[in-house]
Amino acid sequence: MESSKELFDYWYNRVQLKNYPLIESSEHVKTHELRHECTNYDDLRQSNEVQVLEEPERSKVIAIIKYECTARVLQERARILRERAKQYEDDCNQLNQERSRLAKLIKLLQEKLFGKDKEIKKLEAQVAALQARNEALQSEVEKSKAYSDLLQEFEKLKKQYEQVQKRRQELAKNNQSLGGRVAHTQRFRRERDEARVIIEDQKYQIKNLIQENTRLREELSKYINA
Questions:
Q1: Torsion sign (Cα): 7, 12, 13, 16
Q2: What is the pLDDT of residue 149?
Q3: Closest listed residue to residue 71, CA positions, set 15, 10, 22
Q4: Is 185 exposed, middle or buried (0-12, 13-18, 19+ CB in 10 A)?
Q5: From CA 146, how far away is CA 184, in angstroms rounded?
Q6: What tens digit of pLDDT does each residue of 33-61 get?
Q7: CB contact set of 70 (below 8 Å; sequence gap of 6+)
Q8: Helix (H, G, I), strand (E, B) or coil at 154
Q9: Whether pLDDT at 171 is above 60
Q10: Can you give the C-alpha Rg of the chain in angstroms?
Q11: pTM of structure
Q12: Pseudo-torsion of CA 214, 216, 221, 223, nearest 10°?
């Protein structure tokens, strides 16, 4: 061969790689093990083409073969490990992005859960206030019923003493006064009924909010345990 470059190129093209599982190993592998186990180094140096050479030419060619085999296998191993490192880096970045996304989602779910808790407490306070109002109205209704009973007693007295004009006028006056109390009773009953409807509606809303709160907590638990 005319030059060292031609000689190096010639043997470079003769090098063959093998045993890729060892080349790709994540563990440390010694250079001489890579050269012997992962290239055709031994076949090349013992080939008839090399053995027929005279010294020192044969030693020179064997050194070139050793260099080319070593360089080729180390370059291939470095390339594979670089690609693997890049893949690991990409996977890590993707996991970080996913972690960030999940953290935002968890924060959003927590805000929604806490918001639902506040809304439930607010509605519970409203229900408690309505119940107290209903009790007050019930008390007023009972008081009005007492007035109604009194009115009936006066009606009886009116029938008994209807012959007495003066007494009848007094009873009529009392009747007019008590008539206002009956209207007052009817108004309180109406307000009581309206309050009961509002309470039932508030209870229904609380039931729905509790169900939604439970669903959101289960969803949060799934994301946290995923």
A1: positive
A2: 58
A3: 15
A4: buried
A5: 12
A6: 999 999 999 999 999 999 999 999 999 99
A7: 31, 34, 35, 41
A8: helix
A9: yes
A10: 50
A11: 0.45
A12: 160
For 78-90, how does the pLDDT look when each residue is reduced to its tens digit (9 = 90+)? 999 999 999 999 9
Give the Cα separation of 94 and 50 in Å (integer).
Answer: 52
User: Whose CA is closest to 140, among 175, 174, 183, 177?
Assistant: 183
**Mean per-residue pLDDT, 115-136:** 75
DSSP 18: -
Task: Express each pLDDT in 16-28 by its tens digit.
Answer: 999 999 999 999 9
Residue type, 208: N
Token output for 6: 């031609």
Residue 81's beta-bridge partner residues? none
Task: From 55, 61, 66, select the one nearest 4 (Cα to Cα).
Answer: 61
Give which of 65, 81, 67 is closest to 26, Cα–Cα. 81
Dihedral sign of CA atoms 33, 34, 40, 44 in order: negative
CA 139 to chain centre: 50
Q: How far apart are CA 48 and CA 58, in angstroms?
A: 11
Candidates 113, 96, 100; CA nearest to 220 is: 113
pLDDT of residue 24: 95
| 68 C-beta neighbours (distance < 10 Å), count | 22
In which residue are the tokens 């594979």 written? 80
